[in-house]
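Cross-posted from the bioinformatics board.
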Amino acid sequence: AQTVTQSQPEMSVQEAETVTLSCTYDTSESDYYLFWYKQPPSRQMILVIRQEAYKQQNATENRFSVNFQKAAKSFSLKISDSQLGDAAMYFCAYINTNAGKSTFGDGTTLTVKP
Amino acid sequence: ETGVTQSPTHLIKTRGQQVTLRCSSQSGHNTVSWYQQALGQGPQFIFQYYREEENGRGNFPPRFSGLQFPNYSSELNVNALELDDSALYLCASSLAAGGPYEQYFGPGTRLTVT
């Protein structure tokens, strides 16, 4: 069974600074996808960034980038130039290519200090 | 483009009762996944429907059942409610099952079982 672990229940960052959220996962599959989702206090979950396991290049979306280490089964999220609107709970998620099941971590609550 | 909607927003039920939650998927999406999110935890996958067929199931008992309709909207039914069923229930739709497809989440239904 796949598992996703987020070892940092809470993180805080000063506005305009950089923060990295950690995620590790366990799977025996070779083909899969990884996602970071953001859940603001309003509760609606939105996609931040996705990474295909077969791609060595790390995904980047504006201020958000990942460090994907396939051998180590690590998938961290870096947020640069943090903004107050980045404050939310962040979830790391795994899905394999064919199965209809997503596995989410327990989340990291990010606080951004002005 | 209409986003994912869920009804009702909040619901209070008594232990032993039955409940039906509803989800309208985003236009053009044929896949719906249901999740249970306990307070302070990540979403737990209940099941997924792809083109009206169940396409994967998490570790939930049979009293959790679902349906997907020809217009790809979906229902989650829970029989014999237990206190531990109190949670936020999230519905997510996507273009297809598995793979790189982003899941678009609804705002959730908050179920309280007393």
